[in-house]
Amino acid sequence: MKRKFKTGRLMLIVPLLCQAVNVFSQAPKQYLSQPLIKSIYTADPSVHVFNGKIYIYPSHDINAGIPENDNGDHFAMRDYHILSMNSIDGPVTDHGVALDIKDIPWAGRQLWAPDCAYNNGTYFLYFPVKDKKDVFHIGVATSKSPVGPFKAEPQPIKGSFSIDPAVFTDTDGQSYMYFGGIWGGQLQRWAGGKYNPNGSKTDLQKDNQPALNCKVVKLKANMKEFDGPVQDVIILDAAGKPLLGKDHNRRFFEGSWMHKYNGKYYFTYSTGDTHLLAYAIGDRPYGPFHYKGIFLKPVQGWTTHHSIVEFKGKWYLFYHDTQLSGKTHLRNVKVTPLYHQPDGSIAMIDPFKPTTTVKK
Ligand code: FUB
């Protein structure tokens, strides 16, 4: 038997339902974690534990007054500050300028996301910067201290190009550099093996072909030179096929990182224009890697760039958003715990905590 709703009853129920939906959908979001430092803008945190202490190697964002574009011209950084912490919840120390663009003989503009490695008594700071012809390469600078000051080599690393170096030292002591980034990172312009100044401003523009890959190369023991050929970091889908150019939710964009967990190699990266952090797992540093999923939902801001580090037996994700400024190019670094689940997957992280605050 059909029950009839009386119009009067409907008129009472519908506004109540609308109010309930409004209350929950309009609830303000809370950030999962807070900026680690507020006195300067910082982004792209590459983090390492040296001598039992946490060192953060971030970009130092500044307001250069350059309008935002797909090329990333608004990211016009000029120096690096290194941060350190004795514990994850403890105070953060800013160690001041560790390297200035004016002290890099070959540099033109835009000091982007750096990384650091240690070998045999020396710390090596790796940095991408455009040369005087506006082409990104990767340089290296050295110091006896993890916080610098660092002295840059007179030339970029031979054979280097594009951006976002991430140096991973395996348990056998061999170091590898992962690097590359499309769009403003210029990786697409190197697709033919040498730089094409007239190449695409974004990607390969070939949606049904394999996407551009991140690069990986061994480092020599001196940590200043590539050892052997630069290779592609291939990411395979569940059918064993390389991810395609049109697959913007899964393909590599920039900001790679490598960590080893339970004997497996976890290649993690940003999907850029879809604003996700994704991961793929392999059996060796060169891959191939099998795409597994995303582990960080979009943050506030256009970019997100991360590192994953173990400290005192627990794992952490360092990342950035724009909580302090609300502006794309003025970012702040953050940290949150990261969990590997028993099946080896990484538990999803939401950079916001939903609340059920009633809208007034
Ligand atoms: O900070 C400049 C660039 O923005 C980095 O190199 C990219 O990874 C993105 O975070």
From TrEMBL:
Which chain positions carry the site (Important for catalytic activity, responsible for pKa modulation of the active site Glu and correct orientation of both the proton donor and substrate)? D164
**Signal peptide location in the record?**
1-20
Instruction: Please name the GO terms that the record assigns under molecular function.
Output: hydrolase activity, hydrolyzing O-glycosyl compounds
Supply one GO BP term: xylan catabolic process
Record keywords: Carbohydrate metabolism, Glycosidase, Hydrolase, Polysaccharide degradation, Signal, Xylan degradation
Member of which family?
Answer: Belongs to the glycosyl hydrolase 43 family.
Its protein name is Glycoside hydrolase family 43
